[in-house]
Amino acid sequence: MGLTLGVTVTYLSLIVLLPLAALSHRAWGAGWGAFVDAAQSPRIVSALGLSFGAALVAAAFNAVAGLAVAWVLVRYSFPGKRLVDALIDLPFAMPTAVSGIALTAIYAPNGWVGGLLEPLGIQIAYTRWGILIALIFIGLPFVVRTIQPALEEIEAEVEEAAASLGASRWATFRRVLLPALFPAILTGFGLAMARGIGEYGSVIFIAGNKPNETEIAPLLIMMRLEEFNYAGAAVIAVAMLVMSFGLLLAVNLGQWWWGRRMKGVRA
Amino acid sequence: MSNFASRTAPRESALVRWSLTAGVLVFLGLFLVLPLAAVIAEALGAGLRVYWESITEPDALSALRLTFLVAAIAVPLNMVFGVCAAWAIAKFRFRGRGLLLTLIDLPLAVSPVVSGMVYVLLFGLHGWFGPWLRERDIEIIFALPGIVLATIFVTFPYVARELIPLMEAQGNEQEEAALVLGASGLQTFVRVTLPNIKWGLLYGVILCNARAMGEFGAVSVVSGHIRGKTNTLPLHVEILYNEYNTAAAFACASLLAMLGLVTLVAKQVVGRLARGAQDDGVGSELLAGGGAR
Amino acid sequence: MSIRVSNITKRFGRFIAVDDVSLTIPDGQLVALLGPSGSGKSTLLRIIAGLEQPDTMGEKGKAAAAIHLAGAEVSATKVAERGIGFVFQHYALFRHMTVFENIAFGLRVMPRATRPTKGEIAERVNELLGLMQIDSLGGRLPSQLSGGQRQRVALARALATKPSVLLLDEPFGALDAKVRQGLRKWLRKLHDEIHVTSVFVTHDQEEALELADRVVVMNRGRIEQEGTPDELFHRPATPFVAEFLGQVNLIKGHIHNGHAILAGNVTLPHNAPGLVTDGRQARLYIRPHEIELSATALSHGLPVRLLRVRLAGPTVKVEALGPDSQTLDIELSHDRWRQLNLNPGDEAFARPSDVRIFPDDYAI
User: Fold this and answer.
1) Nearest residue in A to B259, CA atom
2) d(Cα A160, Cα A155) in Å, to the nearest integer?
3) Mean pLDDT, rounded, for B218-224
4) Cα separation of C224 and C90, whole Å?
5) CATH 2.40.50.100 location in chain C
6) Any CB–CB contact under 8 A between A155 and chain C?
7) C-alpha to C-alpha distance for B27 and B29, rounded to whole angstroms
8) Digits of tens for pLDDT over chain A (267 positions)?
9) B135: distance to nearest CA of chain A, Å?
10) Which of C52, C84, C94, C99 would you mutate first to test chain A, the one with the most A CBs within 10 A?
11) HEC readout, C99-157
12) Is the link from the previous residue into B10 a cis peptide, with omega within 30 of 0?
């Protein structure tokens, strides 16, 4: 055991802890002033807000769409279901650069879908809509794969009980099934959003990268690094980490609160 | 548990069922299938000859070589690490175990750009070790070592995350039995532990490899984008695309897409084999898996 | 509200769960569907509830399946609209709702037009909490309750909407023996107070005989016999019913002159039922407490040798070896045993006072 633990710790230290230390050091070295400056730069604020906000909206969409997908996959049968089920993992398995250029090709003004919408005056690629589409794409598997096992676990008897008590299908869904699925939906949402905040490859092509409009935070970090503005990059990185951490905390809080309701700490 | 698909009551009306199914299929077709189709269409759009030339062009080939090389280094290292970490965490209780678990999950919570950035902060021109490296003419950032390091960072959780729940579920009894029978630690590991975790290990390696070969963001930061030297295949795709060399970009992208599809298939196959081999389905723990960022 | 099911058949793949069953349950009665696993009793209950659909493809010449609740044909009506209450073996309580919310559920999901006010709902729930003797548990969650408490909540929940029929699927199956016994008595009392037509499914014959006004014994998808517990116990119509209810001895013999002849040439005076013809092999069912034991020879008595005696219990149980090496379980009072002054190993005579005779090729 000592050997394996030793190897593990050494490896981790080199690969993770050291770089993290460098990050904290750099961010710390930048000083509080740098953070304040960053907070006042409209461009940075806009980029951070975009990364966070788009991830939020995409994850919320995925929570609903993912629930529908998981529902159909678990409860209904249709030809080719196994294939469809396997395909859900596609955004996982596909390199992000590939997803990025593929999505751009489709939604660009001369693309398959973009071309259809252009005469209607609707533009998707190079706008915030494009970013949303990309984030929905990569976030979907997180939600579906978290909800599927939870759905499979629901006992049939509980739904039968609700029906025997006179509940319509919709009432059963709203009052019995949805509450039971809440933890899974929340987790899936959290995972999808966390992934979306930091996403780079799938988004960078379709975004258009207009400062203050479609520029995502990771891109700003890249630019700072190219300018050798390490401190500036570190500041934005730390801001992003704080956002992700905050999200994780919020999700865990939500789960804890729900767990308390279920176990009934009041009595 | 009743089989949902064949239950008769209570169920939503046939209209609801069919509309929902149709809606979901349209949504998935639009979001999942369309991009895949686009890659194929654009890659072959300019004809087979252009396709072939794009992927055999020297810069493309060296990008391919680099991608394989990086994976060939990062994946085995992470495999060994993953096994060690899972072994230590699953079989023993020690202080700091929780912290270790959190650290292992860390790269998954961090943006790939940040993942690459931390190495620049360490080894870049103005990084901690920057001057020290420059003196000795050692290149890490904008060279192979940097790319390998960044790739290792973003892919190391995968094997560990697959193995830890698996080994925890399997418990210590078999290893203890082996030790009692006189086997050494190494023998126990090779003859008892390894066969039990082989499917989980394979699954983790598949995910790890997919991410290692497809990683974009992290590698983009540390690479320097020097054609023919420090471009992995995903970076090469980006360069071609930004030069409006669309057909070539998609041609190279199609290779990566094929990697993605092979990963998907392998996932399904190994997942099924793993479920068959063990009661405590590896499948149920195989959740947030691979992919590049 | 009376229940009438006609010509119900249900197949799952090739397995026939319910085989052309017709049954009437009078209004206000507590009826047990009794049988071993796979007898179709749960399936029949679920069909009445509307949780399963009977096969509509009847065989030629047979009437179509029908389910009547209070005279109205309901096989096309959905579960939610049949006005029944259903209690599940594993309670199926809504885990994220309190006891109060669980019980109130049926009232809260009623269509707006007929839904009672919040005050009325609260009144009804509290009434039920009192009836079930779980007054203090209203704010608890199911995870905080014992099995017996959960089942009472499930019952309260089912009764909240004042259903005209109450269906219970092995309601006490998941509970400990002692809890089960207590709840049995309590359920009977409840039924006496409320008089809702109730049907419960059980595989425990003691439970059925103790609780029900009428018992329907099912086996392999068919009804073996239907009647009061007394009728079923003392006058079983088939070997299956005789074996399933209570303790019973099975002796083989053959028919001669309308009487049963056992090994050892002992003739039993009982008349064999009309449909049993001479010369045929017969099965005789004799209850342990309906055997007279004597140290001296008895007319129509079987010579037996006593093997084991169990004295620890309300009655004395004797295991004896009869002719043809068939074992006989005999039950008698402690007083009688003391009078007899017998010991294990002794020879004695056993005479059945009541016998059920069936031909041996009777298909079970």
Assistant:
1) A94
2) 9
3) 88
4) 28
5) 247-359
6) yes
7) 5
8) 667 777 777 777 777 777 777 777 777 776 777 777 777 788 888 888 899 999 999 999 999 999 999 999 999 989 999 899 999 999 988 999 999 999 999 998 888 888 888 888 888 888 889 999 999 999 999 999 999 999 998 888 899 999 999 888 899 999 999 999 999 999 999 989 989 998 999 999 998 888 888 888 899 888 888 888 888 888 888 888 888 888 888 888 888 888 777 765 443
9) 19
10) C94
11) HHHHHHHHHHCCCCCCCCCHHHHHHHHHHHHHHCCCHHHCCCCHHHCCHHHHHHHHHHH
12) yes
Question: Is A264 within 8 Å of chain C by CB?
Answer: yes
Every domain of chain C with CATH number 3.40.50.300 lies at: 3-243
Give one DSSP letter per residue of B25-49, joined into a string.
HHHHIIIIIHHHHHHHHHHHTT-HH
Closest chain A residue to the Cα of B77, Cα to Cα: A11
Chain center to CA of C73 = 27
- Could you tell me the two tokens for A123? 């533009």
Q: Tell me the C-alpha distance between A218 and A200, whole Å.
A: 6
The C-alpha angle A61, A66, A72, rounded to 5 degrees, equals 140
Say what the pLDDT of residue C258 is: 66
Which residue on chain A is closest to B29 by alpha carbon? A84
- For residue C216, pLDDT over 90 is answered with yes
Q: Which distant-in-sequence residues (6+ apart) come within 8 Å of C98 by Cβ? A: A264, C138, C139, C140, C141
User: In the CATH hierarchy, which fold is given to the domain comprising C3-243?
Assistant: Rossmann fold (3.40.50)
pLDDT at B284 over 60: no
SS3 for C23?
strand
pLDDT at B235: 92
Q: What is the DSSP letter of A175?
A: I
Interface confidence, given as ipTM, is: 0.85
Judged by CB atoms closer than 8 Å, whether chains meet at C109 and A171 is answered as yes
Find out whether A99 and B35 touch, Cβ atoms under 8 Å. yes
- At a CB cut-off of 8 Å and minimum separation 6, what does B212 contact? B70, B71, B74, B75, B151, B155
A14-39 tens-digit pLDDT: 777 777 777 777 777 767 777 777 77
* Chains A, C: CB pairs < 8 Å: 82
Q: Does domain C247-359 have CATH number 2.60.40.10?
A: no
A84 to B113: CB separation less than 8 angstroms, yes or no: no
Q: Which domains does chain A have, with CATH numbers?
A: 32-257 (1.10.3720.10)
Positive or negative torsion for Cα C270, C275, C277, C282: negative
Is B8 touching C (CB cutoff 8 A)?
Answer: yes
